[in-house]
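Feature request, filed as a ticket because there's no other form

It would be nice if the structure record came with a short human-readable summary line next to the tokens. Right now we just get the raw output. Example of a typical job, pasted below so the devs can see what we mean:
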Amino acid sequence: MTQKLSGNEPLLKRYPGNPVIPRNAIPCSDGVLNSSVIKFGDEYRGIFTVTSHARGFLLHAGRSKDGINWDINHNPIQWKCKTQEISQIQYSYDPRIVFLEGKYYMTWCNGYHGPSIALGVTENFENFELIELVLPPCNRNAVLFPRKISGKYVMFHRPSDMGHTLFGDIFLCFSNDLIYWGQHRFVMGPRDGWQSLKVGAGPVPVETDEGWVLIYHGVMRSCNGCSYYAGAAILDLEEPWKVLYRTRNYILGPTEIYECVGNVPNVTFPVAAVHDEQTDELRVYYGAADTCVGIATCKLADLIHYIKENSYEG
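Raw output as currently delivered:
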């Protein structure tokens, strides 16, 4: 699926069959957007943000043999929850999935008197448990690390507001039990150009010898609204709030018609990254125009080299 970099093209290369998941992928959908995918044995599983014909946002589970052709459940996930107070889902979107200590944990933006962060878990992508609301309103873009660091769980998050946030920095925090979170640390904020308004964590970070590779989204504001791009950074392995390198240039931006035209124009929003250790291919799943889902790929080694060669100084 990868292609050679040439000319002034960005690093990530779009899959020729994009969008792999159209807005009308299931009968009830007005759009299928920012969604997370993970390997599950020899197959793939996903949690998909689906907007209904009533324009509500809920999460649906899906399965695929190749990560390209998807069978998405027509009904939203029915969460089992021990706490009645948080069991009624107002809305849910922008999930992330991580395989952690033998289970698949999910974080997402959950409606509870505003956008809060919910934590769920599954072992088989058939039965799902809503564990707890781990961060209160207003917050978005929560991403768990795939392992503990210095004996503690780690999670990115981005404090926000009730509406269409016009600001946003990436923070991370620590926990002993996945429920109670603290020790918040600043990671990065906006810079010039395509990431001048706000930034937010994207896929689960990938651990490498060079550090944690984080793909993130950056937003700029123009006279025509907000545009969303993908960038990348390398963070210190043991102190991941320390940014070692960060791209000046975006690695994917809205240029194709399905990225520029839709429910929210001019959006490429990276949510999941699946790395094939044998081929070194990094397959990035991203929401396009808040309407459909695309795939873009590169070699992880090429991404690391690109980040280091195109990083801000200081």
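Something like this underneath would help us a lot:
The two ends are 35 Å apart (CA to CA).
The longest helix spans residues 300-309.
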